Amino acid sequence: MTWHVAEPRPVYQVQALGPALIDARALALLDNAALRRQLGKLEKVELASVWRLTEQALARQPATLPPLDPIALHQRLLDGLAGETLLVASAMFLGSLAEAEQFFGMSFKTIKARLGGSLDTAASERVLRVARVFLGAADMLGSFEAARAYMHARNFALGGATPAELIRTGDGERIALDELQAQAEGAPL
Q1: Which end of the chain is more exposed for a tag (fewer CB within 10 A), N or C?
Q2: How many domains does one find in the chain?
Q3: Are 88 and 29 in contact (CB under 8 A)?
Q4: What is the mean pLDDT of residues 80-97?
Q5: If you average pLDDT over every residue of the chain, what do you get?
Q6: Which residue from 98, 84, 22 is spatially nearest to 58, judged by alpha carbons?
Q7: Which residues are CB-contacts of 76 (< 8 A; sequence separation ≥ 6)?
Q8: From its phi and psi, is residue 89 left (phi > 0), alpha (psi between -120 and 50) or beta?
C-alpha cells in the first residue's frame, strides 16, 4: 500500500511590516500577472473563488520584498492598476459582488467591463487602500481570517466605525492604519 502525503499549505508569513513594505507587498499582489490570468479563466466570478486564488498568490510571495519607492507607487497609481484588482480587493474583505458594487460605487457590469483594462486613478487608490489596511491587519493580527473579521468590527478607537467604512477615503485609511500601529505598540483592540 502506498501512502500519499499532501503538500503542506503555504502560510502567510507574519512579519513587522512598515508602510513601505506593506505597499510593496500590496503592489506585488495587485500587479501579479499570474493571478490576473487565473482570474480571467474563472467560469463564474464569485468572490470566494477570487479569494482562494488571491490567498494562494499571497502565500507564494517572497518572504521579503524591497521597500517600495513612494514616487514609483504614485506613478503606478496614475498609470492605473489592472481592472482585475477590483475583484482582488473586494475578495479580501467583502462577501458578495453586491457589496463590491456598493463599496466601489460601480455596477457589476461596469466592474466586469474594467477586467482586462486599467482603472482610473481614483479606483486604483481605493483598491490600494483596501490592500494596505487588509495586509496591515493580517500582519498585526496574524492571519487573513482575523484581518477579514477586523475589517468589519466596530472599533471604539475608530469612533465606532469599522475599517471597511473608513477606507473609502484616504483620511479614513490613515486613521485605520494609525490604529493598527497603536495596537502593534500595545494599545487595546
Answers
A1: N
A2: 1
A3: yes
A4: 96
A5: 87
A6: 22
A7: 27, 31, 124
A8: alpha
